[in-house]
Design the sequence.
């Protein structure tokens, strides 16, 4: 059983776990485990690791339209180097500061492989789930796509400075708060745009028709992609970009556009069924953590 | 740098992280990472692992005198066996149910070694820290000591049923809530009684004088300990028992004793300095996770 099937099974049993974060009594809680082999290419600094670990959970809170309050992390490593721990805490604290959350500490664990688990707690009085999209609405994404894929390519080429820079994404908490009043369904793009669309379609029992030309591909992708196929791969399937993918009526989106603070791109339309790009089925594949 | 020194460094930098849990705006958040090699002897079921992972964090909330609201876990394993995941979730849910918390889901991560991180969120309007003990008060512990040490011995002997049973401790959340009104300093005994006393003494700038005869040693210890030295080792230094160690005036404790719902044993007296047992220095050693 792969992670996706297992998560599906748990979602069926636990309900809220199937969304980006669980909401109970207006409290949002979400946790993410990351580790060296699959999440941190050689050259990733501990600062960047702290940033991404907590950033991933902040993004889950953003996807619920919630406000982020506090973050903790469990830090597992073979040795406890003070500079490395301090760098991790600095990265975690700095990404929190962008969103109004406070990094309040955590746990250390002696572990063969560098492994971290971040948790963010927040508040969502009126959470946005994945299940509210209706045909006739439009489908949007915040910011740009493909930064993480481009970052991994930069790491592969030894450009670790650039890789670390691209890896430090801004969680869309403030945008999510603004979008909460207009979005009918929302999630983050951590599994890649393609898979996010399929997950929203499944949860909302609808379809999507998007146009390739509309995709807001990050400029960093053009710096590393050899051709259009690779450009599409990095922006659509690679995932871990932590942008918000949401549905809403275009008029409602226009009403909050100025307040959101990040670009909002309309990718296409909510339909009755099927996920299509330029009229062709969009494969349901993406990042499996 | 070992875990203890590293935690000390982080505590200095982050303040609340030096206590059992962080408290921010009345919200308590705490996280714990556990993994197969050091925390789950061969024979530990996934049900028990779920129980202990979340139980450890529930105990941290109890140690702050808080109420537990919600729990999440990140589950890292080489394969995602549906029965194992379900058992883990069942164990996590059952220990939550004992304390009024709700297990609301989590994250799955593909990981070579079975590794889990639990997080519990709760509320503490009037948290109890480690730093409020004063000379003349008394020092107490809830329940009994040594169950986890005895459990590990049972696992070593192949008595996995008994080991799992002893491993499923009851987090003292309800007791902690009652004690919050009388305890001047409190923490849990996860690092062992001896180390807990030294940590409380350091945080409160005081000492303790305890009497060996008063120690509430769990009956399970007598079933495995070959002699008095081993009995003391398992009950005093082994740790991971998750009882509450706290200071208070005896009169105040008598006032809540009936409401606490678990036995409260007076171990000795708060003094000006030094941690002594029967007049001899008590070594500052215990479980290092």
Sequence:
């Amino acid at each position: 059983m792969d992670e996706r099937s297992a998560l599906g099974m748990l979602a069926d049993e636990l309900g809220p776990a199937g969304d980006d974060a669980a909401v109970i009594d207006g409290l949002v809680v979400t946790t993410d485990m990351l580790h060296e082999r699959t999440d941190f290419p050689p050259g990733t600094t501990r600062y960047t690791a702290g940033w991404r670990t907590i950033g991933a959970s902040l993004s889950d809170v953003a996807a619920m339209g919630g406000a982020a309050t506090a973050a903790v992390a469990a830090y597992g490593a073979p040795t406890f180097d003070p500079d490395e721990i301090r760098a991790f805490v600095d990265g975690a604290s700095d990404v929190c500061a962008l969103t109004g959350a406070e990094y309040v500490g955590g746990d250390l664990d002696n572990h063969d492989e560098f492994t971290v688990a971040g948790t963010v707690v927040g508040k969502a009085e009126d959470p946005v789930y994945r299940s509210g999209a209706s045909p006739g609405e439009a489908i949007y994404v915040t910011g740009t796509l493909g930064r993480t894929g481009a970052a991994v390519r930069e790491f592969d080429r030894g450009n670790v400075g650039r890789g670390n820079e691209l890896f430090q994404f801004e969680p869309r908490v403030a945008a999510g708060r603004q979008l909460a009043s207009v979005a009918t369904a929302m999630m983050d793009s951590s599994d890649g745009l393609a898979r996010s669309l399929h997950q929203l379609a499944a949860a909302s029992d609808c379809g999507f028709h998007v146009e390739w030309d509309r995709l807001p591909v990050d400029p960093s992708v053009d710096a590393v992609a050899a051709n259009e196929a690779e450009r599409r791969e990095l922006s659509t399937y690679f995932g871990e970009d932590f942008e918000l993918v949401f549905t809403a009526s275009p008029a409602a989106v226009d009403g909050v556009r100025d307040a959101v603070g990040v670009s909002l791109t309309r990718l296409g339309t909510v339909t009755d069924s099927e996920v299509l790009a330029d009229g062709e089925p969009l494969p349901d594949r993406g990042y499996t953590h």
About this structure: The two ends of chain B are 13 Å apart (CA to CA). The first strand of chain B starts at residue 22 and ends at 24.
